[in-house]
Amino acid sequence: xxxxYILRCADDTFYVGHTENLASRERTHNDGKGxxxxxxxxxxxMVYAEEHPSVESAIARERQLKRWSNKKKEALVxxxxxxxxxxxxxxxxxxxxxxxxxxxDRMP
Length: 108
Fold this sequence. Notes:
The chain is α+β, with helices and mostly antiparallel strands. The protein has helices at residues 22-30, 36-39, 55-66, 70-78, 81-88, 100-106; strands spanning 2-8, 14-19, 45-52. The termini are far apart.
């Protein structure tokens, strides 16, 4: 069995990883023998974990979560589905009223 997990570090940042043994991995991080990132931000506390059928799927999920903003990770940790949905939407930036093609067509 494999897991993807999120740790909250002492400086209130998140660390995302994967493991096959959650308790052992948290101890490893708190002993300073895990990632360099967490070694400098101890103590850490596991705030979220999900089970996966394979190490490969746990790694894929880890990569996905690492690309998320801190706000979105916080919503996941808190189980706030509404915030997750809102944060998952792409921002809708106002579009230009013209295109590059329009500009090129106007050039002599």
